[in-house]
# Entry
Amino acid sequence: MPKILLRLDAQTEGRLAGYAEAGMGFYIVKGRIPGDDADREFLISGDNYLVPLADPKFFALADLLEGEAFPVPAVKPPSSSALAAAGQPTSLAITSALARHTATLPPGYQPAAGAVPLLGTATLGAPTPLYRYTGSPNDLRFTNGSLAQGSYLTTELDRGYANSGFAAVGRYALPLPVPASFVHVYVLPQGTTLRVGTALPSFGQAGGGVEVKLTANATPVVPPWRLQLEDF
# Structure
């Protein structure tokens, strides 16, 4: 029988935009499932799947590393009532700083050398389109016309290398092998300040894609169309 795939409840989803991401479209959080003796770390993907690093009952990152297929869409996510019965976390403390990002890699995993974290700073001299790749048609970082501080995006030049959903997973080192085929376009205003660098190799992915990170909330222009790529 497949393991249970956890998802966040709506109340927790609504709080996520108030915290910085660990990478494009995902978070690393610390929380406790009822029955645990201590807090532990989870990944939250752009689809709001909640994935522990290892667990005997719930689908975990360790299962992916051992060759288990991510159960989407083969396994339908359980309903809210089923999650409650399974011990759905109801309170999560966000711990998504870069130091915690590297600390959550699986035991024994050695990142490849060569990618550089967000070390540079840039200020946009003109309105500029930037892009976010997610596995979901909705971007929870964008609410009420505002894109939240701490959001990751990529540039016009780099998006040409992420030309499919799975290509984006590898280039931006996304933690779950669910194709990030939805591309959200945000034209950020002149004067927006960004941290700039390349995605570190993580979660068994090569990384190396250019990423920028908002240093403050921004009010972008959003085109009336959205890009959707083939998965591969």
The helical segments are 10-16, 61-65, 80-86, 98-103, 156-159, 165-171. The radius of gyration is 17 Å.
